[in-house]
Amino acid sequence: MGNKFRNILLVGLGIVVGVVASVQFSAMAQKQTAPLPLEELRQLADVFGLIKSDYVEPVEDKKLLTEAISGMVSSLDPHSAYLDKKAFQELKEGTQGRFGGLGIEVGMEDGYVKVISPIEDTPAYRAGIKPGDLITKLDSTSVKGLSLDEAVKIMRGDPNTKITLTIARKNMTKPIVLTLVREEIQVKSVKSKIIEPGYAWLRVAQFQEPTVEDLVTHINRIYAKNPNIKGIVLDLRNDPGGILPGAIGVASIFLPKDSLIVSTNGQLPESKATFYARPEYYAGRTINDPLAKLPASIKTVPVVVLVNIGSASASEIVAGALQDHKRATIMGTQTFGKGSVQTIRQISPDTAVKLTTARYYTPSGRSIQAKGIVPDLLVDETPEGDGINGLRIREADLTKHLTNGEEEAKPEDRLDTAEEIRLLENAKNYKPIEYGTKKDFQLMQAINHLKGKPVKLSKTKIEDRKTEVKDASTDNKKSSDPVEKSK
């Protein structure tokens, strides 16, 4: 069983991908290499020599070769990448839920970093940083012109190192300058609360190594205080993915033992695999099954899964499994559409290659690559529409994205110019939704559905659906579309 877990492939988005248990040391050295194209290698050597002799200033050999490797891998698809020492360490920290930083959830507004929320008991929280603050400078670097990822990288760093933030706060005429000391931040991937008597909200923000055990703890805590749970909302909105064992474990919580969760298919024999609701696929080398002490009713309690365009990869595995087994109602907006598997191959003690090695398929055989999961009930973020989410890119919008293997997203699914202008105008007044509160429109619609009350559905039309979505104030029946199977 340990070997099965060791070879589980990894699924994720950006740096939020699983790692340690599946890193395969010296894997490439053990394989028989393919014949090398001598003519192309000769050209590479010629270009290398030309740069060394003619470039305006000297360039280190290591830099040239590292960049050549990075370019070769990244040219394949958006999710394959060469991981240098820093990137490899960040990946490991991301999957373990730890990193050196300040403890701020952030977004972007008018070119500046906007604080969504400081994380409790972190340097940012103790310094008095508030939701809505705009970070305009990081040390001496202006935030204007930086991407969010670039700004986040500057804010992260080794524990016990300092960074100075310049902050603009509403109704204050002068900027606030704060010097903070970075600490090791432990991100909790699971939150929960009772929304109202009998109805619980479980949020998984990211699939990490502790996610399954943490979710079990939250469920048991809820049932201990509220034994008569009538419905659960599993919130996967803006969950970018993470490690595959975490997704298998979360889906297994709600499904019968031995249920098929996901399958993968690629060139390598080990990439042709199926994963079931069994401890060897989600518990690893641990002796005890973390799901063993869950209340029995968790397998039958009505469930709504909330998703949106930010739900990707491992989130889509969970949503797809629960949808195919008809175990939950999927609600929200169409997901990101990342249906590919990345495997981490370590090539030195400090570096690795993150390589797309397979597509994954839901239990019914659906490939969601570049398509995503279409909810059973389409519900916008607000009563007025889907806000800024309508402008976010999906997998199908990424350059060099992997094809679906069956059919591509249709051109008519794209925004037309008028719709894009309308969304841009609406985005000017956009305020981040406070998930898990009574102001969370999608959550309130999920509670209504669990109670059998009318739900206000979106008027958005998605080509993949075979029936037109109607306003649930007059028709609250779940779509009876048959599950689409792969050909």
From TrEMBL:
Residue ranges, annotated region (Disordered): 458-487
UniProt keyword terms in alphabetical order: Hydrolase, Protease, Serine protease
The keyword Hydrolase belongs to this UniProt entry's keyword annotation: yes
Pfam families in the record: CtpB_N-like, PDZ_6, Peptidase_S41
Annotated GO MF terms: endopeptidase activity; serine-type peptidase activity
Cellular compartments per GO CC: outer membrane-bounded periplasmic space
Residue ranges occupied by any PDZ domain in the UniProt entry: 88-156
GO BP, sorted A to Z: proteolysis; signal transduction
UniProt-listed SUPFAM superfamilies: ClpP/crotonase, PDZ domain-like
Biased composition (Basic and acidic residues): 460-487
Family annotation (NCBIfam families): prc
Family as reported in the entry's similarity comment: Belongs to the peptidase S41A family.
Protein's recorded name: C-terminal processing peptidase
Organism of this sequence: Oxalobacter paraformigenes
